[in-house]
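Reproducibility note. Readers wishing to regenerate the assembly model reported in the main text can use the exact inputs given here. Chain order matters: entities are listed in the order in which they were concatenated for prediction.
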Amino acid sequence: MTRMRIYLLAMALVSISMAAQAVDQARMDRFIDDLMGKMTLQEKIGQLNLPVTGDIITGSTVSGDVVGKIKAGQVGGLFNMKGVKSIRQLQEVAVKQSRLGIPLIFGMDVIHGYETVFPIPFAMSMSWDMEAIRNSARIASIEATADGICWTFSPMVDICREPRWGRMSEGNGEDPFLGSAICRAMIEGYQGADLADKTSMMACVKHFALYGAPEAGRDYNTVDMSHVRMFNEYFPPYKAGVDAGAGSFMTSFNVIDYIPATGNRWLMTEVLRDRWGFDGFVVTDYTAISEMINHGMGDLQTVSALALNAGTDMDMVADGFLGTLEKSLDEGKVTIDDIDKACRRILEAKYKLGLFDDPYRYLDSKRASKEIYTAEHRAAARKLATETFVLLQNKDNVLPLQRTAKIALVGPLANTRANMPGTWSVAAASDRYSTLLEAMRRAVGDRGEVMYAKGCNVCYDAELEKNSTMFGREMRDERPVDVMRDEALRIARECDVIVAAMGEPSEMSGESSSRSELTILDAQKDLLTALLATGKPIVLLNFSGRTTVMDWEVENIPTILNVWFGGSEAADAICDVVFGDVSPSGKLSATMPRSVGQVPVYYNHLNTGRPNPKWFTKFTSNYLDVPNEPLFPFGYGLSYTTFNYSPMTLSSNSMSASGSIQASVTVTNTGSREGAEVVQLYIRDLVGSIARPVQELKGFERINLKPGESRQVTFTIDADLLKFYNKDLDYVCEPGDFEVMIGTDSRNVQRKQFTLR
Ligand code: BGC
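Running the prediction on these inputs yields the following structure tokens for the assembly.
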């Protein structure tokens, strides 16, 4: 069966199952009416409480007396516990020792895989491969549900134009169209054919909303933007999550219109439920209710009432609902109706997951031993990882390397096991994963030789390195700088080529990992400089959880492959690409800045009244010291082969609001290796009632071509694709002229125009 047919079959199954997923509403209502009829007020409030066990720490507070609270009916669910045995113990307490025996829901941050870890989400978005991304979420779901988890805090769909923010690593880059497609694929993967299937888990779209736009890139910081920008540029992926049927949403930490998201009724009720029709439940982020005290919104009782009244249903770790809602009800600050609504939404989620039929349905230890970290799952993770690496430059075709070469592998990230899976891989079993050194030696066998020297630490500042390698991922070497460097130089001189595994350690991105500088760290730059002086060719494998500033490297290092964090199979996947078994095909899902001062720099910006894409000209919109152009544009990435685009054809140069136009190109692999290309469609609305972006991604297709092979790619443009939110936030398309662009990245495009009548 061809890949396309498998895909279509899978899609058909997904849509059949979407229908099957619709539970018998009347039956569910009767069941929940009956149950709620038996519940005391305290038990209803108990369902709204989500403490943490402390097994896996992802926040600054840990809950107390969890078992006592479960027995008292004061807990709705728990999160970040690993393993069927410990989860079963607590489920038994809930079912056997609480008055009504209501089962708990068990959640976890299953962000990019479980024990089979896929590339970090930011990396996955570079693949532009929706089928593979959907499959990654499916595999994550199979493994997590085999281990007792039925609810994941993923997908994270915060649009991010801010690489200083460490959580860029968890999202899908800067584009709302690509981000929406990925959000749909992830939800389809997690929730699968049928949410009641034992291999499906409930998705949680986060962080609602706008968490990816913190001022100055500092985590948890203020967000402020116009509603037009929210609706057109930041909201689409969240809305795509509602449309795809996500069972839950998570609030974000930041303020929106000066009110924290968790207490923001406009956001949680008017937009999410009334406008978009979301009917699942909303959980807060970690202690987000009590954090509203610091935001200056009042004491714990006040902020808890604010959250409930806003439409927030479940309190993660803050103990605000549990500790204060009863009092607020007595004082008339919340209504029983709102408590009932929140409780019902959580019970509905448990019902849809089948927990009332069998509270132990995800707790089958036989599944855990058979379905986790399987050869098949690992192969999928390895293949997807190869699609995420972005070849930024390859002067003199240094890559791919011959296996017969004598290779000097250097750098602080070359021999680090725990660092490979990347941030937010809380279920990882890192001791089973390979280091790059191990994988390279395996790949080369006895044909060539791989010599290794660490060469330097992550950076000279031990404190910065400690803070960037948390959660057991420390890697500091206490040897003197010159001893480490000399060792690297010695092996470099003996070898044909140097492979430098450098960049950020995995915890330099992720939560609470903002950076003010985005350039390569001092110790690594000094080592690279010394290695360059040997005159040997260098391949830089750049690990990072964000876009970094690489102007110096681009100037000095001929070959750069950005490998992000590729998950549990990253090391083998890197070797697949380095030795040419697979051609790189990743394309940037975020613009690469030339300097941190350009940030935010993104491709779908508005024009100014004084545009200037070139170098400095007085009284135009530019900098004195850097060009406006980024180092690499959105959509960019090279391959070992080359692709030729035929001239674009448009089926017509005008269309009515009910019609459509086809835009086509034929792409030919003109090189000597097989490779994948992501063909990209952009549109510009030339005149509008509000200023419109200079280009917007509106379609893409990833195609695989053998040498000499051609494929026609056709995009259908209809009025829906041209819609945007106007100044009144109505979703409209406006008649007029449009420019169509098709190309290999956002800069390298062909252009044609058409008119919408
Ligand atoms: C993060 C969320 C995460 C939650 C639970 C928070 O600190 O912001 O993304 O889901 O912790 O671990």
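We highlight two features of this model. The mean pLDDT is 95. The pocket of beta-D-glucopyranose is lined by residues 58-59, 80, 109, 153, 206, 285-286, 511 (CB under 6 Å).
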